[in-house]
Amino acid sequence: MAEYKLTADRYFEALKEDKLLGLKCNDCGKYTVPPKIVCQECSGSNIEVVEMKGEGVIKTYTVVRVPQEGQESQAPIPIALVTLDEGPCIMGRISNIAPDELSLDVIGRRVEVGHMVIPGDKYAHRDGVIPAFTVQ
């Protein structure tokens, strides 16, 4: 049975230091982010942990105006889907543009990946960390 080369805990701890870790497949050459037990492209387990560049391009975005229970104080929440320079897509918050100032011209813009700490709620026993994108 395959083992996790990059655990969620290690991924999120690195993210807190603004380091984006991923997995590179030594069989097909593709990258996987966030971490999984196998390559998301070929399902191979010949993978290694790598530090990603942490840059990419916004493919689309949305603004969440009705958040999940316990996160109401954070609404509205601007969320982007970003294709990283290495290939995989990840989702995270847009950190430097106010939700009501977002428009379609943000699509295609370059971003840098950082992090944002989100407070725990009644379902989480601790604060969480998520990717946060600074639009260039």
Q: Biggest sheet: strands, sense, closure?
A: 5 strands, mixed, barrel
- Would you tell me the overall average pLDDT? 92
Low-confidence blocks of residues: none
| Total beta strand runs | 8
- How many alpha or pi helices? 1
Domains counted in the coordinates: how many?
2
Portion in beta strands: 35-45%
State Rg.
Answer: 16 Å
Strand order of the largest sheet: 4-5-6-8-7
| CATH-defined architecture of the largest domain | Beta Barrel
Decide which structural class fits the backbone: mainly beta
User: Separation of termini?
Assistant: 42 Å
CATH class of the largest domain: Mainly Beta
Quick one: overall form? globular
Helical content stands at: under 10%
Characterization of this structure:
Strand 5 and strand 6 (89-94) form a beta hairpin. The protein has one helix at residues 8-15; strands spanning 21-25, 31-32, 47-51, 55-64, 77-84, 89-94, 110-118, 128-135. A five-stranded mixed β-barrel has the order 4-5-6-8-7. Strands 2-1-3 form a three-stranded antiparallel beta sheet. 6% of the residues lie in helices and 39% in strands. It has two domains: 8-51, no CATH class; 55-135, Beta Barrel (OB fold (Dihydrolipoamide Acetyltransferase, E2P)), CATH 2.40.50. It is built from one helix and eight strands.
